[in-house]
Amino acid sequence: MGLWSCLYNDRSSKAQQPRKTIIILGDEGCGKSCQVSVFTKDDFAINRLPVPSTSNISYIEIDGKMIELILREPAGLDDVTRLNSLSGNKKDAVLLCYSIDNPCSFRNASYKWAPEINKRCPDVPIVLVGNKKDLQNDKYTICELGTLHEEPIGWQAGQKMAEKINAFSYMECSAKTREGIRELFETAARTAVLKKKCPTVVRK
């Protein structure tokens, strides 16, 4: 029973663990890649270049059980191609993201992304995610958006949106400060395990 046996047993046990696939969607530049990178690698790279598609594997313990999470982000492509990733591929939950400092991405989550997700995979639960929470009360961001007669998206607006699109839950997080990142993917894993629509649960 040497090192190889220990490694084999560890890999074998992981192979037997439940595998859940999470699709991550939302406007380009709303923080999807950063949230995944911080969760899987503890790496925050603000100038990350978009790629055609990324897939990361991570393990997370939920209620005493290890879950293998496959995190798929169809990034760097046009919206139609990204939405087409919902067809045919295995998926247990969708993280629908917007950026708290970008009201346009918030509106697109409701009027562009959510209707297509609900149409293409009506039985797959959605977690609505407000990224870049660190900018919610940032004075510069508030000032910049104010010149456009806009403001950062607040908690209540996100909660209302989640209820409107029948999301499983609503989360806010910041990849930059790490706030809410672990909780986000714990919620994603639980959502994928349950894999059913239900009334919105909100978490800060």
Helix-strand blueprint:
Layout: H1 3-15, E1 19-26, H2 32-41, E2 54-62, E3 65-73, H3 79-84, E4 93-99, H4 103-120, E5 126-131, H5 139-146, H6 155-164, E6 169-172, H7 181-194, E7 201-202
Parallel strand pairs: 1-3, 1-4, 4-5, 5-6, 6-7
Antiparallel strand pairs: 2-3
The fraction of residues assigned to DSSP E strands is 15-25%
CATH architecture: 3-Layer(aba) Sandwich
- Structurally, how many domains make up the residues? 1
Structural class: alpha/beta
Task: Characterize the quaternary organization of these chains.
Answer: single chain
Largest sheet descriptor: 7 strands, mixed
What is the overall pLDDT average?
Answer: 84
How many DSSP H or I helices?
7
Number of strands: 7
Helix fraction by DSSP (H/I, runs of at least 4): 25-40%
- The shape, in one word, is globular
Strand order in the sheet with the most strands: 2-3-1-4-5-6-7
N→C terminal distance: 46 Å
CATH H-level superfamily title: P-loop containing nucleotide triphosphate hydrolases
Low-confidence stretches: 1-12
Write down the CATH topology.
Rossmann fold
Keywords: GTP-binding, Nucleotide-binding
Pfam family, one: Ras
Protein name: Ras-like GTP-binding protein Rho1
GO molecular function: GTP binding; GTPase activity
Give me some keywords for this one.
globular, 7-stranded mixed beta sheet, disordered N terminus, alpha/beta, Rossmann fold
